[in-house]
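Can't attach files on this board, so I'm pasting raw text. These are the components:
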Amino acid sequence: MRPLFHPALDDVRPEAILHALSDPVRAAIFTQIAGMGCVQACSAFAAVGDRVIPKSSLSHHIKVLREAGLIRCERHGVEMRNHSRCSEVDQRFPGLIAAILNAYAKAGA
Amino acid sequence: MRPLFHPALDDVRPEAILHALSDPVRAAIFTQIAGMGCVQACSAFAAVGDRVIPKSSLSHHIKVLREAGLIRCERHGVEMRNHSRCSEVDQRFPGLIAAILNAYAKAGA
DNA sequence: TCAATAGTTCCGATATTCCGAACTATGGGA
DNA sequence: TCCCATAGTTCGGAATATCGGAACTATTGA
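---
Top answer:
Structure tokens for the assembled complex are below.
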């Protein structure tokens, strides 16, 4: 299986990050990956709130987050493990992710 | 002419802000409205960088920014004046707009 | 009233998103 | 080794959103 594409930190674009997190479902997924601290398999997001997310849509959402540079995905056996790249991205765009996650938390995403 | 819709501060949604600013053209327009401090007519954005923006597209972009709660638009005579709502939005989502504009500035939007 | 300026609306072409169905990759038995 | 179950990806078509030219509306000044 070909390795998944992850942008280098210098290639991460603000518009990609904003686009990725402008979808409440993706924002919720990313909040969980970033906030839990621990690595999450995609199957952990089969539902967001009470909304069921089809596998194909979920796969697409994870891909958008990955290509935006927000998460890193590695296959471990049969499952994919998703790590946040928060600390990297925060170096390049200080405060950006925190402000976005705070905004969603306050608005009650 | 019917008055333009502006969301109340409490109705401003993070996803709308991120979506509005995930387009580099809109981000550039908003940077100019927010950063110049002074009010700008739409015609000030007939071009962004060296890219010409058609009037209809420009009108659409301004509408997206307005409906996201980022700007306030008022007709003054024959032209429309666009004010930023930065300070309001910053009360509701502290640091969000600053972090986004900093990110674009750093990436060289 | 007419012309000029500033924006808006309409609408067709293009691009994106969504999701079910089929497919691929990996690991664990028997 | 072969088969099955699990986890995720890809394909493809329907629904939706975006872009921009042309026509339209609103306002001011002559």
